Amino acid sequence: MSSSNFKVKVINEEKGKGLFASRAFKDGDTILTEKPLVCCQFSWNLEYGYLACDNCLRPLETAEENVHRLTENSTIILPHPECCETKKELIVECPDCATKYCSIECQNEAYSRYHSTLCFRTREKDESHPLVQLNETWKQMHYPPESGTIMLPARMVAIVNQADNKEEVLSTFSQFCHCAVNEVHEIAHKLLEEKFIGQIDVLRETMQKALDTKLTSNWFTPDGFRSLLALIGTNGQGIGTSAFSVWVKNVSALDLPREERIFVDKLIDRIYSEMDEAVGVFLNNEGSGLYALQSAINHSCVPNAIVEFPFSNNVLVLKAIRNIQPEEEICISYLDECDQERSRHSRQKALRSLYLFVCRCDKCLSQAGDPDLTSEDEFDDDMSS
Fold it and tell me: Are 25 and 31 in contact (CB under 8 A)?
């Protein structure tokens, strides 16, 4: 797969594929923009009232409503409401199950791709409905902070069932998981936590009851289902959207008088402080998706690119964070910004646990002689000296 900006090619058997620049990029350049093959909001995130379009995860509440909910303070008034991009007049819902969408276009796309299969056909939540039982079974095994949801593979099954070219869709999904059997078991354990691993068969059987899985029967053998969990565990790209963060970005770009700028900046700081007290780090509508190109991008502890969601929906943008030369491999960090600054031993431990590989990037190789101490050990040593 290639374009004028990049190409995907096989590196070796161990690393598999990688994304390489076809031309030079400067710091800040957009390398690619991509929609997911499938995405889904996390189950607990939805349960706790984070309102997002079922199709694209765009926020369905205004910035001010978002602030009121996350601060538990309904007296806050946001200036410059024109900086909020939520268009509530465009929101529609499924007439059968009341699932909400940001627009009729998203509703139509969802119905044609997967929602016809997954629609509850009732506006009242029926606890006995197989899909409700599937979601509840998952939620009891996978608590926040969330890294996946069983409703993502459920949506994959629905997409296969509704596709005109089912073999093509199955082939597309098959590219995402090439783990060895022992690796699949490790990933499934990590995703569900050790105490729930004995209940994988319960989850598998519940999903089979909820969906017509004849076309994807190989996904529902014991090993096939573990591979499905490994797929979402290692390839799922986190997606976060927020009506308030969009408002902050837009209001920060305004040319305001000095005193008003000071007022707005102090208001933003106060709101984030109140959010932190009320909900901690859980600020966004959160979910995950599978992206064909993004999944080919390898990790580096000194990445030259970053994944962003600037449109506050599921559209991914890969952006250069330093100059990149033609034929140079484009890498992102699978670790968050804080973890990137930890010791080599801590980074390697996290990457082995979550992604089952040993990082050999330039930073890790240059630190190969460092002592095998976790960052916590280093911190303790500093405190005691």
Answer: yes
Half-sphere CA count of 251, side-chain side, radius 13 A = 23
Averaged pLDDT for residues 170-187: 73
8 A C-beta contact, residue 149 and residue 287? yes
Across 56-84, b (16+ Cβ under 10 Å) vs e yields bbbbbbbbbbbbbbbbeeeeeebeeeebb
Distance of alpha carbon 132 from alpha carbon 122, whole angstroms: 12
* Dist. CA 340–CA 302, nearest whole Å: 8
Contact 284, 50 (CB under 8 A): yes
The pLDDT tens digits for 190-204 are 677 666 777 888 999
Provide the pLDDT confidence category of residue 176 given band limits of 50, 70 and 90.
Answer: confident
The band of 380, judged by pLDDT with boundaries at 50, 70 and 90, is very low
- Count Cα atoms within 13 angstroms, Cβ side, for 313: 19
CB contact at 8 A, 53 and 101 = yes
Cis preceding-peptide flag for 145 (omega within 30 of 0): yes
